[in-house]
What we know:
Strand order of the largest sheet: 1-2-3-4-5-6-8-7
GO molecular function: acyltransferase activity
Domain N-acetyltransferase: 78-244
Structural class: alpha+beta
Region (Disordered): 1-75
CATH class: Alpha Beta
Shape: globular
Organism: Streptomyces cyaneofuscatus
Largest sheet: 8 strands, mixed
Strand content: 25-35%
Radius of gyration: 16 Å
Keywords: Acyltransferase, Transferase
CATH superfamily: Gcn5-related N-acetyltransferase (GNAT)
CATH topology: Aminopeptidase
Amino acid sequence: MAAPAPDPQPGPGPVRDTTPGPGPVHDAPPGTAPDADARPGTDPDPDPDGTDGTDAETDSPPGPDPLTVPSMSAGPDFVLRPWEMSDLPLIREAAQDPYIPLITTVPSRYSDRAAEEFVRRQWDRAATGAGYPFAIVRSRDRRPVGAIGLWLRELPEGRASIGYWMVPSGRGQGVTRAALRTVTGWALRDLGVPRLQLFIEPWNTASARIAVDVGYRHEGLLRGWQRVGDERRDMAVYGLLNSDGQVDGRAVASN
């Protein structure tokens, strides 16, 4: 997974989705490896799965303007939408994963109260302008299977980060790739973000492969970049510029 951004303290209620998002993002190009959905990346906590990475839980609110989190199709099988209190079963499953609570603010010991606080933090992120947190939901049964977030702390410097995580029941279905393509294309084309970046632990080859498939470039290794559990760990950084050309076979508007 890609590492998420840190959650702000609880604040106002949710910013509801009132505007339809962009259409479906096409499937990965022929010849790409199937989505193994290994483990979360490390940068988001869409909280959300890194590239099959972890959430970016290090971003703090960039400004006071509230954001409206849209609903978006991530191909024919998944949708991205704002978090709801009905998503507590997803948080319960994520809390049982050995890695997700280390890189996000998902509670390591589940309780309904802790899970509700987690959802409120996602609402607060949008309300304070920190970023766009999405739940990833399977279309056929409306079951949430993961999270992804676009975090805007560094947007004044022309860059934003994406983080995500996926629970075991959602892995191996191509959902991480589809979600990352959707948020990436939306951020570059619709929002005009100049640069997107992901932070992934070097061992997380599945997340790294997904990032490269979507169009991100491996740019280097950041030593001791992020605390994961009780230790600081290295993170590989992957970047994609608005001027790089194409995402998912579609042109990206130049800034």
